[in-house]
Amino acid sequence: MSRDRALRKQQQLNNLVAAVTKLAKPGDLIVDFCSGGGHVGIVLAYMMPSCQVVLIENKELSLIRAKDRSDELGLNNIWFIQANLDYFIGTFNIGVALHACGVATDMVIEHCLRARAAFVISPCCYGFIQNTVKFKYPRSHQFKEILSYKEHMILCRFADQTAVQLPPERRLIGKQCMGLVDLDRAWAAEEHNYSVQIISMEPESCSPKNNMFVGIPT
């Protein structure tokens, strides 16, 4: 990993960890969905030793790396589960995901709603969003009244136009479309008695996909 990329990853982690720290209480169970090599979950376990942290990841090699990293730190409040998101069942207090790809963001939100858990999620890969057996788009009643599925898909495609090599005006349109797609998700969660904020990570240059949800059951 280059120094610049490592710095951006650190900035992303700082944003998520700061948000989770504000929500967490001693004894809370925090689930890091789509955990990859454990960048988020390991930091959370290290920073909050009074909480339990569970990493959910379907790739064995990624979990092995995460386990090795946690062992080097001597962490005893972290657990590892190799599973697809679909198969996870359990109660927890806070759900976390950094750059959950496409529909995975909505899957994580759904798990949190069912558990009445708070969530801190950074979405990614908007262009991969599409109807599935379990999820239909748009998500919220408000958006369903004004957007068709096809129009929502167009919005998602434009939301992926945020790469740094693109002209500034195209990136601005992409950022605005990201905001609309995520507003639909936030309103859908609020229909389940949640308070949801959509904020930009700081600095925004830490990632082209710099939106972050913070959801709290009311």
Question: Can you summarize this structure?
Answer:
The protein contains seven helices and seven strands, in the order αβαβαββαβαααββ.
Mean pLDDT: 96
Low-pLDDT residue spans: none
Number of separate strands:
7
The gyration radius over C-alpha positions equals 17 Å
Q: Approximately how much beta-strand content do the residues carry?
A: 15-25%
Number of helical regions: 7
Q: Would you kindly provide a written description of the structure presented here, covering whatever features stand out?
A:
This protein has 218 residues and is α/β, with parallel strands linked by helices. It contains seven helices and seven strands. It has helices at residues 3-23, 39-47, 60-73, 103-115, 141-144, 149-159, 168-190; strands spanning 29-33, 52-57, 78-82, 94-101, 118-124, 194-200, 211-217. Strand 4, helix 4 (103-115) and strand 5 form a beta-alpha-beta unit. Helix 6 packs across helix 7 (168-190). The protein is globular, with a radius of gyration of 17 Å. The model has no long low-confidence stretch (mean pLDDT 96).
